[in-house]
Amino acid sequence: MNPVFSFLFQRLRPILSILVGLAIAGIIMSASGYRAGEALSALGSAATGLYKGSIRGEHDWTISGTTHLNVFLVAQSLSRITPLILTGLSVAIGLRAGMFNIGCQGQMTMGALAAAYVGQFGIRDAATGLGSLPAVLHVPVTLLSAVLAGGAWAAVAAWLKTKRGVHEVLSTIMLNYIASNLVIYLITHNLKDPHSMAAQTSMMASSSWLTPLVPGANLSIGLFIALCAALLIAIIMKRSALGFEIRAVGQGAEAARTAGMPVERTILLTMLISGALSGLAGSIEVMAIHHRCLQGVAGTYGFDGIAVALLGGLQAGGAALSAVFFGALSNGSAYMQLQTDVPDSIAIIVQAVVIICIGIRQFPSIKLNIRKDAVRDISS
Amino acid sequence: MCVSLYDGQYPDYLDMGTIVNGIISESTPTNTTYAVRMAGISKQYPGILANDNVNLNIIKGTLHAVIGENGAGKSTLLGILYGSTLANSGTITINEVDVTHQLRSPADAIEFGIGMVSQHYSLIPALSVLENCILGAEPTFASCWIDRKKAAIKINRLVDQLGLSNINLDALARSLSIPLQQKVEILKSLYRGADILLLDEPTAALAPSESTALFKLLQQLVSMGTTVVYITHKLKEVMSYSESITVLRSGKSVAQLRTENATEEELLSHMMGKRIQKNVAALNRIDTMGIKEHAENSEIPAPRMLLQLNKITALNSRRALALRGVSLNIHKGEIVGVAGVEGSGQRELAEALVGVSTIEEGEIIFEQIDISRCSIQERHRRGIAYIPEDRNRAGLIPSLSVADNYLLGSQRDSKWGGGMFLNSSEIMSLAERMISACDIRTGHGGAKMQAGSLSGGNQQKLLVARALKDSPQLVIACQPTRGLDREAAKLIYKIISEAVSRGMSVILFSSDIDELFEISDRILVMFNQRIAGEVARDNFAIETIGALMTGTSIQIENVTPA
């Protein structure tokens, strides 16, 4: 293949994949009798918050003339992007060390549980029912508890891998089941909210909440925590000795071991970081949105992290960017369903097609080979 | 009977069937049929002519040995006969039928009645003995159900004929010992109707008593009319069991002999490339000049001991004994070569020294401290560096840059940034300096180039430079110049000898005897997972080393027994 073309193709692969994904979604919608153009524009409008025409809400901003920005929709998209950045980083750093951590779901659940538990401290101290701890203390402690819980949950898989030879895919899937069922047990038994019929923990003290940045929306400073995490991971991977060890172990564990690198320790540390990131995602979900732990608190963010990491090329910055795409897509599709009746599962189809496209390694060269053969036939 | 030094060319009267094993023999009846005749076989690999106009003639129903040094082209030749490798030129005749153009794959070879037992067995661990035997040739009824009964009857008949009563057809392949696995491989070939059986180093993984049992089985096969061809390094096996011999050297067939007319000395001289006019002991006695010189040098104060191995034993990955009580001493500032045919324990010895594998018994004393339980990092910190044999897997990480590969293993040293963060500009400048010092051709990218994009020679230089970068006291170098051209090899010797002149010691594992002769102060020879003997520089002679390597019973002088 032409080297320039090859280079461009490598660089543009994520964008091409997204375009193919959207195109196939359009074809499926048309074939199902929906107006694909209308649906996609509704999706795009809800995902980005941009719309044309007269201004609809008093908080909306006017970008230029008839183009306006719905602040609430943007905030909703950003709130979905937040956990995706973290779970995407979680999967990406694991894969850089050669560990396919598909246990982000469970690690995020454990993080949410820990945060919901620690967030309750202080409730009983105040007659008002509000926390007596200062938020500057309560918020970091709650976040930290989730980081530790997520890290510990992932460390179980790392220990099983390095000491007992259990493949991480197997152990992390099983740990997902254990985490979600453990949460179900606890929210219906020991940690159940005594004042509610629902299976959920008691409300966390407000001192542990992350307050919304836009009234009524789920967006919180959790977004900045996630972006800081992305920056930190980028620095670790590019500049630190640990990052070097992670890269070396992921690309050639045998050579790394022979050169005297602590391969097992690197795998353990990587999984600790990976689990901590997922745990952090779980804590932001409960601290900003639910204010308690309930069933399915992690949504599908853990698994979507795999898509985010792959589209982002396993880079920290790439993961943040691809989280923006998938988060906006997911939020946009929910509003698209409201407005056009197109089921929001179309977003999952887009996601799946994009990931398959990212996995494609050689489709352009097939075409070129055929051309070469043709040339040979003519010349002979 | 004249013993001709076979020159690789067959005269035209070959077709008359009066030439046997390279020796014109009037007594041989003209009605001899050949199971295999390969003529003028050549195989070119990139950069190496593995087979160069090779001839192989095997009379039907005999046991034929193919011998030669490492890399002589034996496995390539059998690979061509089995169809797994395609020759560039030459003709192949099976049972007097020219099949040169029909024999294109192992499936074709099986069709022509050829079976192969390669060095690495191809049994599927989760399947039973019976299932492994019938794999790909399953008898069926109603063309979709496997007829296990029919298969069992056929295999049992074979088992009875060969007296292999200890094989349980329902046992899973993974539960079998190495010798049993090998027997199943043989059964598998016979089940497919093989009457020509090829075995690539069948005794490499066997204990002596198991080897004897294997040859009994092979002789029985021969008595039943099967033709057996086997590759070996071990001359005793050749002399005791084979009927005729082909010797390969540097890709050429240099001799074909009848075993009854051959001597071990003669085979050795064919293998090693120098004809012995006198016996080995006499040849060594000529070399008295060196001994005198050695005596004069003995006034120099006794060199300081660096490394001591006391009777270490180790197991390989298949839990078989890979080192059987190896003891050796290394002094400061010396280069000690380790020779041996492949699989004699060299790789395991190197890995035990570096700490890649753990030893079962014995002790490794490095600078008066027992390091046999230390990790690789710990040994590295104490001054043991390693140049692994497998450049692309154990040595370099091809997808990382030259600078990253140079850094590998030292990323926590204060020199490179002090623990937490790496000083990338310092790393780059040290790597660039190393690149120019070692003359590594990286192209335009310098230290940022991917290590995998370098040529083999430059990769090897990088690996050597990395091993030497922290001024180690001892370097374990495994095949450091394998696959390199003369110039690149010389540069590597130069880099190593500079470090040695500063007091470093080297243990050089090499299959290239010329290399060992060139730079070693003494050579240890391994055979059967032990050190068979030691030869001092003054007594270096290819015959001595060769005799030790092949475990012959020739009386050798000037060897310090291990």
Number of helices of chain A: 14
Structural class of chain B comes to: alpha/beta
Number of helices of chain B: 19
Largest sheet of chain A: 3 strands, antiparallel
Question: How much strand content do the residues of chain A show?
Answer: under 5%
Q: Tell me the β content of chain B.
A: 15-25%
Mean pLDDT of chain B: 83
Low-confidence stretches of chain A: 365-380
Per CATH, the class of the largest domain in chain B reads Alpha Beta
Give me the side-by-side strand order of the main sheet of chain B: 8-11-12-5-13-14
Sequence stretches where pLDDT stays below 50 over 5 or more residues of chain B: 1-29, 275-299
Task: Output the CATH topology of the largest domain in chain B.
Answer: Rossmann fold
Indicate the topology.
The complex is a heterodimer of chains A (380) and B (562).
Chain A: H1 3-31, H2 36-48, E1 50-52, E2 61-64, E3 67-69, H3 71-96, H4 104-118, H5 135-164, H6 168-188, H7 222-239, H8 241-251, H9 253-258, H10 263-290, H11 301-311, H12 316-340, H13 345-359, H14 363-379
Antiparallel strand pairs in A: 1-3, 2-3
Chain B: E1 19-20, E2 23-24, E3 34-45, E4 48-59, E5 63-67, H1 74-81, E6 89-94, E7 97-98, H2 106-111, E8 114-117, H3 129-134, E9 140-141, E10 145-146, H4 148-162, H5 178-191, E11 196-199, H6 208-223, E12 227-232, H7 235-241, E13 244-249, E14 252-258, H8 264-272, H9 280-286, H10 289-297, E15 305-315, E16 321-331, E17 335-339, H11 346-354, E18 361-366, E19 369-370, H12 376-382, E20 384-387, H13 391-395, H14 402-407, H15 424-437, H16 456-468, E21 474-478, H17 486-501, E22 505-509, H18 513-519, E23 522-527, E24 530-536, H19 542-550
Parallel strand pairs in B: 5-12, 5-13, 8-11, 11-12, 17-22, 17-23, 20-21, 21-22
Antiparallel strand pairs in B: 1-2, 3-4, 3-6, 6-7, 9-10, 13-14, 15-16, 15-18, 18-19, 23-24
Describe the protein.
- The complex is a heterodimer of chains A (380) and B (562).
- Chain A has 380 residues and is an all-alpha fold.
- Chain A has a domain at 75-324: ABC transporter involved in vitamin B12 uptake, BtuC (Orthogonal Bundle), CATH 1.10.3470.
- Helix content of chain A is 70%, strand content 3%.
- Chain A has 14 helices and three strands.
- Chain A has helices at residues 3-31, 36-48, 71-96, 104-118, 135-164, 168-188, 222-239, 241-251, 253-258, 263-290, 301-311, 316-340, 345-359, 363-379; strands at residues 50-52, 61-64, 67-69.
- Chain A has a three-stranded antiparallel β-sheet with strand order 1-3-2.
- The two termini of chain A are 22 Å apart.
- By secondary structure, chain B is of the alpha/beta class.
- Chain B folds into three domains: 12-119 and 196-275, 3-Layer(aba) Sandwich (Rossmann fold); 280-383 and 472-562, 3-Layer(aba) Sandwich (Rossmann fold); 400-469, no CATH class.
- Classes of the chains: A mainly alpha (380), B alpha/beta (562).
- Chain A binds chain B through residues 239-242, 244-245, 247-248, 251-252, 254-262, and chain B through 354, 356, 375-377, 379-380, 386, 388, 393-400, 404, 407-409, 411-412, 416-417, 419-422, 424, 466.
